[in-house]
Amino acid sequence: MTTSHTLFPLLLPLAAVLALVSVAAAAGAVSTSDFQKITREERNYRQKKVIDVSHKYVPELPAYGSKNGLGNFIRLQTSIKLGDLSNYSFFNLSTHSGTHVDAPGHFNETLFELGYDVVSLDLRTLNGPVLVVDTPRDKNITAEVMRSLNIPRGVKRVLFRTLNTDRRLMHKKEFDSSYTAFTSDGAEYLVQNSDIKLVGVDYLSVAINPKDELTKVHQLLLAPKDFPERWLSFAASVWVVSQRNLFVFP
Q1: What's the rounded Cα separation, in Å, for the pair 139 and 136?
Q2: Is omega for the bond preceding 13 within 30 degrees of 0, making it cis?
Q3: Measuring CA to CA, which residue among 8, 245, 14 is closest to residue 126?
Q4: How do residues 144-182 score in pLDDT, each as one tens digit?
Q5: Which of 37, 40, 61, 184 has its CA 20 to 30 Å from the CA of residue 172?
Q6: What angle do CA 185, 188, 193 make, to 5 degrees?
Q7: Span 46-55, mean pLDDT?
Q8: Given a cut of 70, is residue 132 above it in pLDDT?
């Protein structure tokens, strides 16, 4: 299968798009000028195309290493039907459930101890135009595959559509360890030869299954460049979004 590139004006669902408009002063009423600013920003926002690539949380959604998917992760705590004041639910999920982003400290103890969680990520990287690429269906994402994709310099966000999508792995409850993902040489090629800052993959992990590759790929993609000199200003080299849903694309 030949590789193909598709550019989508995608806004990832991991962050809301906020137009920070200065409205009324703290002690003053909203003026006509304030209202005009808000309506102008609202009009500009509505002109943007937003594509939700996240998977719906359901008990059958696969979970890493599990035969049973997420299971019953939500429980109704209070119910209006039962005479309570409100409907209120309780969630019990890991931080890697469903469509999620890997934190800089996921495979880096130093960054973990320094508190570099997903809150430290810049929302501007998580939102914006994205390039969707189809990878060869008979290979993992190796250095050879990355070279063949010929992703231009300047591209910041890429979603990789692989055999996982064809196999509908995210729609099968039992975890499948034969999924397609990055190899360590593929991850190293991406870091060394592209300007990509956000990577999206179509299954539960960005890295292939063997333990040593799992560690290497994450460390290569998430490690700050020029560590430790620049870690304060740039916590992760590449951000990883797992389990995005590409069935919405033509």
Answers
A1: 6
A2: no
A3: 14
A4: 999 999 999 999 999 999 999 999 999 999 999 999 999
A5: 184
A6: 120
A7: 81
A8: yes
Closest CA to 142 of 172, 178, 180, 108: 180
Q: What is the mean pLDDT of the chain?
A: 82
Q: Which CATH architecture has domain 97-237?
A: 3-Layer(bba) Sandwich (3.50)
For 116, residues 6+ apart whose C-beta sits below 8 A from its C-beta are 103, 104, 105, 108, 235, 236
Q: Report the side by side order of strands in the sheet with 239-242.
A: 4-8, 130-134, 157-161, 198-200, 239-242, 100-101
Q: What is the DSSP string of 124-165?
A: HHHBS-EEEEEPPTTS-B-HHHHHHHTPPTT--EEEEE-HHH
Q: What is the pLDDT of residues 210-232, one digit of tens each?
A: 889 999 999 999 887 544 433 33
